[in-house]
Each structure stands twice: as structure tokens, then as C-alpha cells.
Amino acid sequence: MNEPTAGAPATPGAPAKPRLLDQVSHAIRVRHYSRRTEEAYVGWIRRFILFHGKRHPATMGEPEITRFLSWLAVERKVGAITQNQALSAILFLYREVLRQEIGWLQNVARAKGPRRLPVVLSREEVRAVLQHLDGPVWLVAALLYGSGLRLLEALHLRIKDIDFGDNQITVRSGKGGKDRVTMLPAIVKEPLARHLEVMRLQHQQDLERNAGWVEMPLALARKYPSAGREWCWQWAFPATRSYRDAATRECRRHHLHESVIQRAVHAAIRSAGIRKHASCHTFRHYADLRIMPSPPVLFPSTS
Of 38, 155, 199, 244, which is most buried by a Cβ count within 10 Å? Predict the structure, then answer.
């Protein structure tokens, strides 16, 4: 797709303006939105432009937005959350990039948000699932269940966010961009500590081969240039492979990808013979969220 540029046509000899979607990405990053938000917003704006035959958004307004949102609800049959996300992306485009105010959208066909009961696993079912997991996957699943963490919150944990002395975990930039503190379940402490000792040795080996970098949040990489190699900033659940960042040329490790945990939990649910439509998020729906199943599932030795 040939992406349009924003604003009036460029005058001869003047430097070309950035493409519209590049301007959207820049505006999102300036406001420190997440990468997922950036990907979602850019995707919806691209669909909006394609839906109207690649017309520039500056030449469109309320009628075109209404038609697109109604098409999503009526023809594509998207849910209310999806339609609202598309609306948020388009409003961001007009207000923050094009600097145009959009009036009240009165005639939009609203997608319906069905009220569904969450899938809940019993304590015995949770124990059965955990017994089919091991290693870091077991640890992540146990934290989802015992600490009430969301999957990405668990994978985004850094060493400094785990306090073994006070038995607590600090969640940074959780849902809504807010920090919060939750408990570190006693049953997870010992296996988690052993896991981190293995990860510390791995990090030391990375440092010896001039690697060991990790992505730093926001502008901290500029404020503390060497902090990206410090142990306290490393991911608690690093990926098995390192990569070289294209911008900085640093050899880094990312955290485990969420699909690794999702596939393992899905396989464990099937192996346990559970016929509920459960997932990683199901662990957070347990009625007595702060009590781990007994007897405990022992974390396998990492030696």
C-alpha cells in the first residue's frame, strides 16, 4: 500500500513529509504507549484507509468513520471491544496527528458485547495441569495462579521486581499502565530462587562473550548507559536465544515469548484430560486465587 502523507501537498524543493503511518507511530511512541498499542492502532488506521479506497483521512470525516465502524459491526461482526479499539485508533489519528476534531458519531451501528461467564478451574484441575508442566513454564503458570499475574506481566518481570525478603512481586506498567504489588507464593520461592541462580550463571557467560544486554524501559538506556548489562535489570524468564539489536548493535536476550507458555499450558490441559476451554488467563479466574494446590508440585532440579 502506498501510504499517504499528512497535510497539504509538498511544495517543490521542500523536504518530503513522513508518511502518515510513520507519523502515527511517532506520535504513539512520544506518548510512551506500548508496542502492542502501536501495532493495533497502525493496523486499524491502515484498514480504515483501504476501506475508503486509499483516500487520505484529511479528506474524510464523521460520515466515513461512521460507515467504517458500522461495517465492522454489521458485516465483519466484530465484538464491542474490537470496534471500540478501532474507534480509539481513528480518533487518535485525527486528534493527535491530523489535529482535527471529530464530532459526535450518532449513527454508528454498535457491536454487542455478550456477557460471558469466565471459565474456572477447580483446585484439582489446576493441580493436574501443573503436574504436566516443568521448568520455567511451571514457574510462570504457578505465578499466574498464585500471584494473579497476567501472562505478559509474568514474562515482563525483571530480577529487581522480585522481593524474596518481603515475599512480594512488583508489577511494572500493568493493565492501564499502573504499577502494583502482589504476593510471592511461598511454594514458588525455592524453585524460583534456584531458577534465578541458573539464569545468573547464564548472564555471567553472556557478559564474558561481550553480550548480556537487555532492553531498557523508556529513556533509562540514555540516562544509565551501562544499566542494560546489570543483573537487576535482566528478565526473570529470558529467552533461550540472544539477538543483536538493529539500532544499538547490542547482543541482547528478550524474555520468553508468550506463545511458548500458551502452547505448553494448552498441551498440559489436554494431557490432564480437562475438557474446559481453558487458557493461561483461566488461572486468574480461580475463586481462591491466593492458595496454591496442595500437595505442592515440586520444581524439577535445574542441576
Answer: 155
